[in-house]
Structures are given as structure tokens and as C-alpha cells.
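Reopening this one. Same input as before:
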Amino acid sequence: MSWLLNLYRTYEKNESQVGIWKTRGEDREYTLLPISHTTQNAHIEVTVDDQGNFLRAMPLKKMNTLIPCTEESASRAGAKVAPYPLHDKLSYVAGDFQKYGGQIKNADDIPYNAYLKNLQAWAESEFATNKVKAIYTYVQKGSLIEDLVKEKVLHLKNGKLIEKWDKSLEASLGEKPDIFSSGTTEQTSAFVRFNVFSPTSTIDVWRDKEMYDSFTSFYNDQLSDEDICFVTGEVAPSTERHANKIRHAADKAKLISANDTSGFTFRGRFNKSVEAMGISYDVSQKAHNALKWLIVKQGKAIDDRVFLTWANNDESLPDPGADAASFFYDDDEEEETEAVTGEGVAKEVSKAIGGFRHDFDYKLDVNFLTLDSATTGRMAVLYYRNINKELYLNRLESWHKSCAWEHHFRKNDSGKRISFYGAPATRDIAWAAYGPRASDKVIKGAMERLLPCIIDERSIQKDIVKSAVNRASNPVAMEKWEWEKTLSITCALVRKMYIKEDWQVALNEETTDRSYLFGRLLAVADVLERSALGRDEKRATNAIRYMNSFSKNPSRTWKTLQDSLQPYQAKLGTKVTRYSKLIDEIGDAIDLQDFTNKPLDEKYLLGFYSQRRELYKKKTEEETEV
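Same output, byte for byte:
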């Protein structure tokens, strides 16, 4: 229950954000929903005056609208009649729906009558506003479709509403009307939202805080069935119906549900679902609305799996799955970051993390939640942690120090490639391990498994490292940019795996590690041949082509490489001296007993990367001096 309690507390601490609309991205609007409210795509907007007289109407294109709702209407499905309190589909809000060809499944249970009865109760209550009264006055006239036809919002054929648009109708109606491009499949299923034009208020009905408070107070007054809430421990009106539309407007999956009263859900342990767990209506509404708000505001979704990090007070927090560049470096920074030792990046990490530290961190908690659904109706919490903020920042700092390497694949907002030193993003790690063609199911699974490595400081999974090493050892299977990205990310993982040995990007010329030294030999062979080929030749060198074979049979493959290098050594002339000398030095450092075909471990990639980097660095310095 701790995740529900923390979501409830988040809502309580951020209640001032209710009804304040913000935008994420280019066009995704969101707000912290009031309790007893949800969102719905509207297709038609009808405006009346403060006396309840029709003024105008217009078709909309999937306009996300905040609407009041009851427990029954929020979970209605199929033929069940459960009207929304104010805005709803034509079959509910139009008294002349049947007159114009609308079909009602049950003549004894007409949606319009149920809608009008509920709206009347609200309009005549002590909580009603003038806008609610004006809308009720208009709707009870029962002439909505007639007015919409006059406004040319809806269209008839033989006195009945046209169900679907057909090109044969162009002769009589001209171009395709806007209502058929509004997102609704049929005119009869269009969703209508109401607005009120008033000299005293210019706020739209669906954004009017007075309207929110009016319905919330009215509906809370109707609630009964008090019980103990398992989340707060208080006695309050309970609910068995909990919110959907958690990840997006079309999301039907629920986190909490118990509707199987005839199957084996309870297996004889309980008579009713509330005996297993009771949640008050207020807690359920606030917790779910806080979750919806947080997901749109700062959640990350991959194939409907949501990764969410938040603090109860809505304080800005670093994302555990992000790479170092996302909060260590400025996106507009054009200079390459020079960090050849762990000391340099350690200071940068501490400085960046320090920006999120405050005097009272020991009192604050951070929450991590991962959600996904196996079916369209059920959603599950796959991962949840609640830890002290100070502890989280310490662990995040440790991750970005221990899994750090030099990377060149990042692009800033202007599209310019930048270099950074630090830990890669969990999504990039999954990409390096399984490739760009891996399904979203594989990628999101790997990202979920990596989270505990950061938050709980667990060891990184060996199968992920092995998969990344195998791909990095096979460069001929990918394009150069893809391999370079895979290589640097894999080096970060290998460094994390052998963190006690304290490997760095800077070349280690003192180590006698067999795999590291063989990796250095491979790098020298690669740079030697590349220098002889020149800049115009883009084909892979023999060292790159034989890299996979070299990692499995280093001694035998090295002999093959040496033979293939001879023409390139001859082509370089006296320039080959430093490469030959370096090969001799590295060879001398390898113990004779280690010069075998025993497969290399992951550290050969570190030796390869660092040696190649050092050679290219010196080459650039020499060209600059010339």
C-alpha cells in the first residue's frame, strides 16, 4: 500500500496545481485532475447563454476535455446506462436523439432520461453554479440535434442522421463535413461538451475551478458506505470502482479491480472483495489522479511500460535511467569533454548531484514505480521502491562514477554531436546489448532489470554485459557509428563489472593483464592499417574484420593479422617505426605462457579502446603542430 499512500500524499501536497494546465512537448496538455473528474475527447462544442438559450456550436478535432464523472460513469461499458454528470455523448444529452434516427437498446432505460435526472439533482442542489443551471435549462428543452443540424454541425439524409460519410453524399452535401473528421466513427456517437457565455465569467466550463468545486462538493454529499481505508487507516466512504485512463486517454487497464464475483477470485477466503482490501473513494481518486499527472508530467513510456520517479513534494529529481549528459553537461556545449582519469568525472558527478541536494533531504523520500499491463483491462506494479532522497542521490552518484566511460554518440538540441564522460542511459545499454532492431518488449525488459542496479546497488546482470560484449566484438555486422556507440557503452559496463580494478579511459601502460594487452595489440594493428589506407578509404581494416575471431583465438589470429599488416607497414615507410616499436613493447609485456588461444575476457575491449584513443590523440597533436 505504500505506493498508494505516497501518491495520495503527493496529491495532498500539490493540490494547488489542480486545474492549472501545462503542456509537455508540442501539444500534450495536462493538469492535476480534481477528484470526481476525468478527461474525454470531445467532438462537438455547444455554447449557451446564462439563461439557457442556444447560441452556437462547432465541431472539434479530438479536444481533450476535463469533465465531472461518477463512479458508475467512469467505469461504464457496453450497453450499461451510466451518464456523465454534465458532458456526454449525443445519446445521453440529446432529447431528440430517437427522433433523428438514434437507436436505443432498451426502451425502458433511456440514456437521456437518466442524464437529465442526474443533472437536475445537481442543478437544484445547494452546490449548483449559474453555469450548471444554464446548461440544465437548455438541455431539458430536448432540441440539441435540431439546433446542431441548423448550425450545420450535424447532417441528415431523409430526416435521419447520417451514420458514416460516403463519397456518394458529395453530390448533395458537397465536401466532407468537419464532424466526420473529428475522430468519431459515427455522428450518433459524437461526444458533446457544453460551454456558457456569460458577461460575468469568461472562463470555459471545463477549466472553471468553481465548477470543479461545485460538482466535487455535490458528489461527496451523495457518498455513503463508510468503511476502514487500508491506506490511511481512517473510516471514510469506500469504493470498489477505481480509475482507468492511467497512462493515456485510451488506456482501459486498471491497477485495482475485483469484478469476478462468480469465478475463483476469492477462492473461499472472502465473501466480498472489500474484505480483502478496502480503499476510500477520496484516497483512490487522489492517488490515481496524482499518478496520471506524474506520468504525463515526467514519466517515460516504452511500449506502454511506464518508468516513473517522483518526490512527494514535486521537487525536481534526476532520472535514474538517464545518461550523464542529460544533467552533467549543457546541451549547447560544443567543446568535447576531456576526462582521462576517474578523478575528473568524480568531481563533475559530485557537482551535478550536489545541485539536487538540500538541507532537509534526510526528511524527504523518493519513489520509483514501473507499470505495465499484460491485458487491456489489468495493469500491474512491476517495480516499486521508496527510499530516502539523500540515499538515492548517493547511489546515483556511485552509479555515474562506476559505470562511466567516454562517449561520442550524443546529439544536442541543434543536432550537433557532442562528447561526454559518464554512465550511459539504461535505454542505450539495452540498445547496445540487443541491437537497434530489438523489440520494445526486449528493451523495456532490460531497462526494468537495470533499475535495481542503480537504485539498490545490485551487481549488473552478466547476461546483459555478455550480450553487449558479443555485439561489440562483431563490428562487421553493423555500421561504423553503431559499432562505436556499442563499443563505448560496453566499455562502461565492463568497467562497472570490474570496478574494484579501477580501469580508466586513459591508457594503462603498467598493467600486465593478458586480455587488456591483447586488446592493445589489436588497436595498434587497426590504427597502423588505417594510417596506411588514408582518409578516403572507408573499408574496415583487417583488425576490425578479425576482431571476433581474435577475441576467441588471440594467438592464432594475431599471426594472421601480422601477415596481413606487412604490405601496409611497407607503404608507411619510416612512419611505421613507432607502431612496430609499440607492438614489440606490448608483446614483451605479455607472459610467454599467456600467449595462447585461450579466449579473452571482456577487458580486452578496454585495452583496445584506450590504446586506439591514445594513438589517435597523438596523431591529432602531431598534425596540429605541423
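So the earlier flakiness isn't reproducible anymore. For the record, Residues 331-341 have pLDDT under 50 and may be disordered.
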